[in-house]
Automatic annotation (TrEMBL):
Name this polypeptide is given: Carbohydrate porin
Keyword Signal applies: yes
UniProt KW Coiled coil keyword: yes
Keyword line: Coiled coil, Signal
Signal peptide region: 1-29
Native organism: Shewanella schlegeliana
Alphabetical list of Pfam families matching this protein: Porin_O_P
Coiled coil: 28-62
Length: 452
């Protein structure tokens, strides 16, 4: 009887059960949707975070500095960089007429030209390698490779440079032409080796450094050969500098350089030393001629003293040449110069390289200032006479005064006046048929330089 009473109630129970089941399903469906929605929102937030990080990394990959208009490109992991560099020097020169060492007269002239037009890239990769590639497009010769090398810097205190490079010898020659106090280097630069293919090791200590290198070159200012098949020579160089005093505005720099040139006992090869006045467009007015040689040794000493905005520097360089037949020949050159920055800025010294860089103006033109101004004076002498060894190349003395204006960190204007004198052991015949033992000339020159 009781069972019969239950059956009539079963439709109601079934309805209630169905309703509860539907409600539960609806609730479960709603919760699932919410979870899925939350997951979607979380994924969206993660994507936004990733995009924000990428955007931040993109900003960090390109950097600008105040002294260079060129951006530095940096890899995402920061282990590699690339930066463009350039050096543009436009010169104006007005010079009196001069005789060259052969007695040929070169009339007075006015010249406006591009002295240097260089472009390149530099940077590092894999955190321990630096690289440099630079070309010169000065328009006077074919496009010339100036630097093409890599440097390993994985050691704490030393580095190793491989490839086509400049070899350290002397203070002015080792430094960059973008950081000269005058338009041209002094006559001691004649003894510095040109760039060559080779290897150079540098050790850096506390305000001192040592360079030692070896190179193979086929062309050099002081190297000459009659036959291009005999055009190779080996060069060994070393340079040591230190700053024993660097405190309270005082800085003392001392250094020494050595260079050995091996001509491989080739009778076709010769060394030659020649120099212009402190300007580029004129002819060379002293010249040893070709000295048949087995080898040559160059040696130099350097000194610089800086007190705040005053800088004095001087160098002496000599060459001893082992002639194949005549006695050993000796020639030399030296200079002394002083620079005073009127506006108070000072030259920047690098103990790691043993060189100076030009001042950075405290009030550049771009900020409404007048830039940095300085005056400079130089005495420069080269003696290419060694009568006992049969060398009568002449002796040259230059007196130079200069005015420099640094408009910006990378923009500089220069004005130089050069008075040059030359004396000779053997006379030359001038255009009037008179024998002369000396000559002199006045040279005015100016430069506008943009470099970064």
């Amino acid at each position: 009887m009781n069972n019969n009473k239950m059956f009539p109630d079963s439709p109601i129970a079934l309805a209630i059960s169905a309703s509860l089941l539907c409600f539960s399903s609806a609730v479960m469906a709603s919760e699932t949707d919410k979870v899925m929605e939350l997951e979607e929102r979380l994924n969206a937030l993660e994507m936004e975070l990733i995009e924000a990080k990428d955007a931040a990394n993109q900003v960090d990959r390109v950097k600008f500095s105040k002294d260079s208009p060129s951006p530095e490109l940096i890899s995402k992991d920061g282990r590699s960089t690339m930066e463009f560099k350039a050096r543009i020097q436009a010169d104006y020169v007005k010079a009196d007429g001069l005789y060259d060492i052969d007695g040929e007269y070169n009339d007075k002239f006015t010249d406006a030209s591009i002295r240097r037009l260089r472009f390149g890239i530099e940077g590092y990769f894999s955190n321990v390698w630096e690289y440099e590639l630079e070309f010169d497009f000065d328009g006077l010769t074919e496009v010339e490779v100036k630097d093409a090398n890599v440097v390993y810097k994985g050691w704490d205190d030393s580095s190793l440079k491989l490839g086509f490079q400049k070899f350290a010898f002397g203070m002015e020659a080792t430094g960059s032409s973008a950081h000269l106090a005058f338009l041209e280097r002094a006559a001691t630069d004649v003894f510095a080796p040109d760039r060559a293919l080779g290897v150079q090791w540098r050790y850096v200590g506390n305000n001192y450094n040592l360079h030692v290198g070896y190179g193979i070159t086929t062309e050099n200012e002081f190297f000459s050969t009659e036959d291009q098949s005999h055009s190779e020579m080996n060069v060994f160089n070393a340079r040591f500098t230190m700053a024993p005093i660097d405190r309270n505005g005082h800085l003392l720099h001392i250094g020494a350089s050595g260079l050995y040139i091996d001509l491989n006992d080739d009778a076709e090869k010769a060394l030659r030393y020649r120099a212009r006045p402190n300007t580029k467009p004129t002819e060379r007015i002293i010249n040893t001629g070709k000295i048949k040689s087995q080898s040559g040794t160059h040696y130099g000493a350097e000194l610089a003293y800086q007190y705040r905005n005053f800088l004095f520097q001087s160098e002496y360089v000599g060459a001893s040449v082992d002639q194949t037949t005549d006695p050993k020949a000796n020639v030399d050159a030296y200079y002394a110069q002083a620079v005073y920055t009127i506006t108070g800025e000072q030259w920047r010294y690098s103990g790691k390289k043993g060189t100076f860089k030009t001042p950075s103006p405290s009030n550049p033109i771009s900020t409404g200032g007048w830039g940095a101004w300085e005056v400079a004076a130089r005495y420069d002498l080269a003696n290419f006479d060694d009568v006992d060894a049969g060398i009568e190349g002449g002796k040259k003395t230059d007196y130079v005064i200069g005015l420099n204006w640094y408009l910006e960190d990378n923009l500089k204007a220069q004005l130089n006046y050069v008075y040059t004198q030359a004396d000779y052991v053997a006379p030359y015949t001038d255009i009037n048929g008179v024998e002369q033992y000396d000559q002199d000339a006045n040279i005015f020159q100016a430069r506008l330089q943009f470099a970064f």
